[in-house]
Amino acid sequence: MNSLLLGSFPNKASLVAPGGSCERSKIWTNNCLTIGTLGSYAPTTASWPKRKIKKEYNFLRFKQSSLVFRCEGIEGGPTCQECNRKHIVKATSGQSFESEPPAFDSKRILTSVKNSLDAFYRFSRPHTVIGTALSIVSVSLLAVQKSSDISPLFFTGVLEAVVAALFMNIYIVGLNQLSDIEIDKINKPYLPLASGEYSVGTGVTIVASFSFLSFWLGWIVGSWPLFWALFISFVLGTAYSIDVPLLRWKRFAVLAAMCILAVRAVIVQLAFFLHMQVLFQ
């Protein structure tokens, strides 16, 4: 009977070996339960001698108490899943000593630069820029009296006038957009301020910066016709767009037409012609 009962259990070393696998723990627990069951049903068959039955019963009780003690010792400790979980947490919480190099996405940078240039191109209203540049170049050529006038001085004067006028042109069209954001959301939703690509603060910064640059360049050049052309354009452009009492002349057809004619037909033609003549003197 002893050999039959003990032969169903694994050897002692495999049952109590520290750090055993989960399978061993499961087998050990099952075996403990089996021993407990068998211990509670001690053999009482009348055909066996009483002494033999008593010895076997005492042996099973002793074996059961020792096995249950060892099972409780194993069950009281951390399970294999808990140990594995602790090792995983430690492995994931540890800092990696290898740092990956930052990804340099040149395509994304080029796309961002392209979008920024496109937004500024639309903000500057290119048709007005082209018209201003062509007007200044054509008027400057009218001031040429002989072939020797086509010199580096001539190209320098034309460049100064074109750049200063374009700066002022961006101020005028930018102020107009700042004053018409709600209207442009319906009529011209592709403009940066109306579409939300530019914030109001960005628009104000661009407008103020270009007006300052325009006056600064006109002052540095030292040409009074150029400076007065910039100043008169500034005044008329502001009165045309800004929404304050007695201004915003674009609301009235006659005043709006007079502002445009004064800048395009008089100021640009006369002032820049005089600017080139000052350079030739």
Automatic annotation (TrEMBL):
Gene3D superfamilies referenced in this protein's UniProt entry, alphabetically: UbiA prenyltransferase
Pfam families referenced in this protein's UniProt entry, alphabetically: UbiA
Transmembrane segments: 127-144, 150-175, 196-219, 225-242, 254-274
GO cellular component term, pick one: chloroplast membrane
Annotated keywords: Membrane, Transferase, Transmembrane, Transmembrane helix
GO molecular function terms attached to this record: prenyltransferase activity
Name of the protein: Homogentisate phytyltransferase
PANTHER family cross-referenced by the UniProt entry: HOMOGENTISATE PHYTYLTRANSFERASE 1, CHLOROPLASTIC, HOMOGENTISATE SOLANESYLTRANSFERASE, CHLOROPLASTIC
Bilayer topology term: Multi-pass membrane protein
Cellular compartment(s): Plastid, Chloroplast membrane
Organism of origin: Arachis hypogaea (Peanut)
UniProt similarity note: Belongs to the UbiA prenyltransferase family.
Record-linked InterPro entries: UbiA_prenyltransferase, UbiA_sf
Parts forming coiled coils: none
